[in-house]
Structure formats: structure tokens, C-alpha cells
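Hey, I was hoping to borrow your eyes for a little while. No rush at all, and the record is pasted right below:
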Amino acid sequence: MEHLVTSVVLLDRDFKVCELNPAAENLLQISRDHLRGQPLTRYVHDADALRELLDSARHASRGYLSELVLRRGEDARDPVYIDCRVAPYTGNADGWLIVEFSDVTKRVRVSRDNQLRSQHDTGRMIIRQLAHEIKNPLGGLRGAAQLLGRHLDDPELTGYTAVIINEVDRLAALVDSLLGPGGSINKSDVNLHDVLEHVIRLVDADRVVNVRWQRDYDPSLPTLMLDRDQMIQAVLNIVRNAIAASDGADVELSLRTRALTNDTIGAVPHRVIASIEIADNGPGIDPEIRDSIFYPLVTGRPDGTGLGLPLSQELIQRHGGLIEFTSEPGHTVFQIRLPMESSS
């Protein structure tokens, strides 16, 4: 065991750790002395799934394989996916099991990123079709508001027609952006923390609910060449979704930035990427829509449009990045990943 590259753990009849090799110590990031005598289920996110796997291997007297998620301490920001192989121990200890772990986090992430990109491509096609349908009546609405304004003498009433015209122009600009070839990007040096602080000011100005903000910024993060307005819109959509999901209850939102080295976005490796995590303490995303959350018109709220997240994904992908998420009741995290090499 000591010289194996794979992580190996030996369990007794109560599924407690009897022995493990250095590779397992490294994977679990816990010392051998601390792990001995502890139930292995404590260190897996879905303890029931592991317990069922161990029971099956013991009673069937054969090996089993399953994909699980490790729990490294109390920090679930960066889940570690593992292939877990369990088989009866062939030594002289009856009922003992031998468990082998293989870290498959990169494989899982690449597969998930590719799925998200596929969703985005399909969603973008749907959005473009919707944009065409929306754009057609906008010209008529604008023209009608202009004609109505010319026949009104009351300045207050003409103010309302001006509001209509301004909103039509805003929607038309949004539609043009959606219909454009990849969208217009006006890049400049952008400080991501300034973007996040601007979003905080916008949300606080709405005063819809009481938001408790937690900031965990990496001060070493450099400026990136980005479209500031598009970044603000992408983050704002995610934040507003979290607030809307709270149903009027107080919300705790955590904003965290980091520079991650030797990471990937999709199947593309990057020397360094910028990460923005937006975490909330809300009810979580309905499991029925988690696999399709970035498709247009998919929403868990009766009053939702289902366009905010697809638009955010579109804006981030224009910068070569990707939005991922994890969600469970009480803890949902959306992570924006942006390449830094091309932004310097």
C-alpha cells in the first residue's frame, strides 16, 4: 500500500479506518493518525451513498464502483470527485473492506463544462429566435409612442410617452446585442472588485430585501481586459436570481475572488484563471431544473422569465469564460471562470 500511486484505505467491520497509504492521506488532506478509528463516511459528501456501497460489497462478497464527492474539512467550495472501488479484504480479518479512490475531478469538470457549453449553444439559438420575434413589434411601439406624444399637451403625459420610448430603445439595444455576431465587446482594463462593488450598490439601491454581504476578495488579482458593462450585467443577473429565490426573506450573499493556477475552462487548460464565486443561503435550485438551468425560459419561479442565467452565460462566454454552479438547500454557489492570459 505504501508505494501505490492510487489511494487505498482499509476499513473494519464498522467502516472505520484501520490503515491507509500516503496517497490517501494526500487526497483526503488529513493525516493518518487523525483518520485511524474514524468512520470513512464522515469524509464523503453523500455518506448514505457510500454506506450503501460498502454494505453491498460486504454482503455480495464482490467489488463495487461508484462516483462520489469528497468532503475536505468544512470547505465545500471546491468539490473533489472520486471513483470509489470497494471490495472485501482478502486477509484474515472477517468483514473488513478495502477501498480504492481515484481523483476524477478534472474528468468530471471537463464533461460538465462541455455540457454547459452545449446548453449555451442551444440556448443562444433559441434566444436569437426570440430576439427576432421581440424586435419586430418594437419599432411599432416606438412610432406609436412618438405619435401619441405629439398630440398631448400635458407635460406629465408626454413624460410617460418619453419613458415608453426610452424603454423601447433599451430593449432594442439589448435585442441588437443578442442578435449580433457574438455580441459587441468594448474591452478595457477592468478591476473585478470594482464590478462587484458596483453590483452591491445597485442591489442596495433597490431595497427589495435586506442583503447581508460578505466579501472575500483576493487583493493580488490583477485587472483584466473585459467589457465592464457586460460583466456587471452577468453578475447582477446571478445576484438578482438569488434574491428573488428568497421570497422576501433576508439574504446572505458572499462574493469571493481568487486566481486559480493550472486550471481548465472546458477542455482548455490555462496557466491561470480568475474565479468569482457568488454564494447564497437560499433554498437552492430545484433538482428538476438543475440540468437545464442555462436554457432560456427555464425557471423555478412563477414570475421568472428564465432569461437571466442564459444571458449571463452568453456574456461570460464572449470573454472565453464559463459559469458553473453547485446547489443544495442553504448553499448555492455560482462560479464565474475567466481566462487571464488573454486579458493581460
